[in-house]
Amino acid sequence: MERWRGVHGIPTKWGRCVVTIGVFDGVHRGHQQIISRAVEKARELGVPSVVVTFDPHPIEVIRPGSHPPMLTGTRYKADLVEQLGVDVFCVLPFTVGFMQLTAEEFVHSVLVERLHASAVVVGANFRFGNGGKGTVASLTDDGRRWGFTVEGFPLQGTGDMTWSSTYVRSCVAAGDVTSAAEALGREHRVDGVVVRGDQRGREIGYPTANLEPLPWSAIPADGIYAGHLLRGKEQLPAAISIGTNPTFAGTERRVEAYVLDFDGDLYGEHVGLAFTARLRDTLRFDGVEPLVAQMELDVARTRELVRDHPSG
Q: Could you tell me the CA-to-CA distances from 224 to 29, 116, 195, 284 in Å, in that order?
C-alpha cells in the first residue's frame, strides 16, 4: 500500500480511482465495511482504491482544545486500512486554511483535480467542507457535474446500537474493553514508548513497563486489565495497570504492564498494549504484602484469560 501525505504527495500523473473519505478513528467495524465497499468498487472498475483521512482530528482545528481521545494513531490506522486491501492511504493535514475550503472547493481541488475520482464511497452521515455544509446529496450532485458516482453507505451496528468512534470511546472511557472490542472487531490498543518509572515493581518482584502513550490516546478507565504487550510481531501476555498507584500515595496517572515470563529490557521501545478484559478496579492496599498477594491473583487470572486468545 502506498502512503501519501498532503495533496502534493499525490503523483502528478495519477489516473482514475475510487475514493473513500473520513477520519476513520478506530477503523471500527462500520468503517471496515465502508472501506471494503470502496475496495470492492475499485476492483469492479479496475482502478486503485484510495482512503483519504485527516491529521490532526478536524475537531481540534475547528474547536481548539477539544481534541477527542484517539482510538488509533495515524501509523496504526494505516496498518489497519492496509489489511483491508486498500491501495493508497492519503493523509491530508487539517489546517485552518483547509478548514475554510467550501464543500465545492474540496470536491474540485481534491477529488477532481488531484485524485481524478471515478467513484466516491462514504458513510450515509458524511459531512464535509466549511461548516459541514457538504452532504452525500450535494456530493452526488457534484459527481454528476464532474463525472464520478457517489455511494452513501448505510450506518452499521448491532441491535439498536450503531458502531461509531464516539461509542467506542465511551466504552473505553468506562473500562468496558469487551464492548469496545466487539465494535472494533479487535481489542482496543494503546501505543507509546516505554519510559522509566519509579521501579517499585522491580523491588516487589513485578517489574513493569511504564508506557508513555501517544498524545490524545484513548486510555481505558483506571483499573487492572488482562491483555498483551505488542512488540513488533510478538504478542506477550501482560497484566496492565492504569491509575495512580494509591498504595504508594501516587498522584500521577500511569499506564504500566507486567509482562508475564519476560525479563528483557524494553526501555525506549515503541510498543502497544492490547486490552483483553478488565479484571478489577484500582485499589489501595494496607502495605506491600496484600498488594503482592493480589498481584499474584491478577497474574494468574491474566494467564488464564489470554491463553489461546491472541490479540486481534
A: 26, 49, 20, 13
The identity of residue 239, as a single letter, is: A
> What's the CATH architecture for 183-306?
Beta Barrel (2.40)
- Give the span between the Cα atoms of 260 and 209, in whole angstroms: 11
Distance CA 242, CA 220 (A): 8
Containing 230, the helix (H) or strand (E) segment is strand 223-231
Q: What nine digits make up the cell of 47?
A: 482502478
Domain residue extents for the chain? 11-158, 183-306
The string of pLDDT tens digits covering residues 108-150 is 999 999 999 999 999 999 999 999 999 999 999 999 999 999 9
Mean per-residue pLDDT over the chain, rounded? 92
CB of 258 within 8 A of CB of 207? yes
Contacts of 157 (CB under 8 A, 6+ apart): 30, 163
Judged by average pLDDT, the poorest of 20-24, 72-76, 196-200, 238-242 is: 196-200
| More confident of the two residues 159 and 108 | 108
Three-class secondary structure assignment of 121-153: EEECCCCECHHHCECHHHHHHHHHHHCCEEEEE
Residue 224 in contact with residue 282, Cβ under 8 Å? yes
Global pTM value: 0.91
At the top level of CATH, which class does the domain 11-158 belong to? alpha beta
